[in-house]
Input
Amino acid sequence: MPGENQGERLRDSQFAPGNRPRFPLARNKENGTSMVKPLEYLTYRGGPGHWSWVMHRLSGIGVFLFLLIHIVDISLIGWGPKVFDRLLFIYRYPAFRLGEVVLVAAVLYHALNGVRICISDFWPETMAFHRKLTYAVGIIFTIIYIPTAVYMLSFIIK
Amino acid sequence: MSGAGNPRPESGLELYAWIFMRVSGLALLFLALGHLLIMHIIHNVDNIDFQFVAARYATPFWRTYDLLMLWFAMIHGVNGLRTVLVDYISPRGWRTASLASLFVVGFVLLTLGSLAILTFQPPAMH
Output
């Protein structure tokens, strides 16, 4: 049966790194020529899992780049109070404070989603409800982050 | 395996890297979030200056905290970015060059950060 073969092939390719189907959402269509709608790109590889993967990468890269800058700025402590204070006070400008609020979002999301990854890795049976775990990350993030962000933004305004 | 990422490595250095990412990640969950809470929310950039850091580094506790966090974060970050670079850069030369740059930058900044934490002399002690 060609249908079965195709199903098996796609199932294999889905789990083979570097061998992912380019248009996985068209895989259930019999002729495979159907157009992928713009909205379908947003759910590439299956919805929330894909988006948490993307955000984990982006937040990780963002936090890492800030870490590099942060090491340089704190190292200025060795040059004494004049140099240190003069450069560190750059962080008091509103644009940098806004960046700080974004940084907290990135670290918090990366941390919470990292916990979810550890749970899935060490207790594979939780994969049965992995979507719920992904949504839980979003809910816990929102509960912690909204008040934190409001509190941090209140420093800028006053 | 977990979701859309690469499968768990079977053995060797890749397995140790895999384990390290989880162990350091859980350590950073407390170290980095604690750091953000103390230095960006309870205190914030309006009241952090040389004097603040000098007082903080007068005791070995915060130096140890920061040093642990620095090492975990840097190695975690370098290994994470290594995964990203290997995923997206396939030409051999570019891959080698980008990985080499990553390791050099990581090593230099880890050294710089460690020196800053370990060699700082609070002026009050003179």
Remarks:
- The CA atoms of residues 104 and 110 of chain B lie 10 Å apart.
- The mean pLDDT of chain B is 89.
- Helices of chain B lie at 12-42, 50-56, 60-88, 92-119.
